[in-house]
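pasting for ref
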Amino acid sequence: MTSRVLVLACLAVLATGVILDASGHVLGTATPPLVMGWKPAIDAWAVAAAAASAAAVALAPRLPPVALGPAALVLALTINAARSGTEGWTAVFSTSFEALNEYLPALPALAHGRGLFLDRFAELVPALPVHVAGHPPGLILALDAAGLTTPSRMAALCIACAALVPPLTFALARTVCPVHARSAGLLALASPALLLFGTTSADAVYAALGTATAALLVRREPLARSAGAALLAVAAFASWALLAVGAWATIFLWRRDGLRPAGAVAAACAVAVVALNGALAGAYGYDPIGALQSTEAVYRNSLAATRPYWFWVVGSPAAFALMAGLPLVASAVRRPSPVAVATFSVLAIAAVLGFTKAETERIWLFLVPLLCVAAAEQLAGGRVRPLVAVLLAQALACQLLFFTVW
C-alpha cells in the first residue's frame, strides 16, 4: 500500500506541475517538476540503443558482475546517441546552450596557478560559471591538473565514471545485502537517471565518488571505514552534496549496528573533512566557509529564485523518483530496511532544506545507487529482468521524446 501511494503521489506532483505551468504559474523548469522539455528527435543510433537494451534485458539473469561496467558503457553510449548521434556525448560541454554554464569555461581562472585560485576561490565564485560556482573547487582543479580541458576529454571522464557506477553499486550491495548484490548492480545499469543524466554530466563523477565512499563506510573493518572517511573528504571537496553520503552511512549504521558504530563513523567523517579543509586553508588560504556562503548567495539569486519552495519541497523528490525509476522507489519503500531508511531520510532532509530546488534528477544522482540497493533487497530474483526492461524502456523513450539538456 505504501509503495502504491508513493507512486501515485509522484504522478500527482507531475500532473499538478504541468497544469500549473500551463496556467501561467512560473515554476522554473520546462516540464515541472522535471527539467526536460517535450522535443521528439531520433537518430540512426536509436537502432543500436534498442538492440543494446534488448540484449541487456535478455542477458540480465546471467550477466556476471564483471560485465556490469562494459554493459553500462554500451548502454550509456548508444542511448545517449539515439537522439542526435555521437554529438550527444559531448554537446553539453561544447555546442549546447548549457556549455557556458559548465566547467570548462572556468579554466582560465586558473591561469595564475592553482594555489592562487584556491586562495581566491570564495571571492571568485560570483564570477564563475554556475556549475563551478555551485561546488567546491575540487573537480575544476582535477580537470586542470589531469589535462581534461577539452569537451571530448571531459565527456570521456563522465562516461567512464557513469560506467563505474553499476560495479560500484554491486560492491556496496555485496557488503550490505550479498544475496541481492547482482540485482542491485543490474538496477543501477538500467536506471534512467544514471543513463540520461549521468553519462553526459559531471554528476556521473559525483555518483561514482559517492557510491565508492558509501561502499567503504558501511564495511566493518576499521581500515575500510577510515579510507571511506578520507574519500568522503575528497568527494565533498568536489561536491557539497556528497556530505550527505556521510549522513547516509551514519543513519544506515545506526539502524544496522547501533549508535556507537554510527557515532564513530560520523566522527571519523567529520575529522577527515575538517582536516582536509584545514590543510588546504593552511597551505593555500582556501576558505571553505566563505566559499559555501558565496555559493549560497549565487544560488539564492539564480534561476532558483523563480522556483517556489511550496512546490519544490515535494517537486524535487518527485522529480528524483520519476527519473530514477518509479519501480525502484516502489520496491525500496516496501520494507524499512536500514538501507531504505537511510536513503529516504536523506532524501527527505534534502527536500525540506530546499537548497536544491529542481534538477534533482541530475543533482541527486549520487543517491540513485543507494536507492538501487534498497530496491534490490526487496526483489525476488525472477522480478529483476522485467524491472530492468521497464527502466530501459523509460530511458530510451525519454531520450527520444524529450530534450534533457544533459
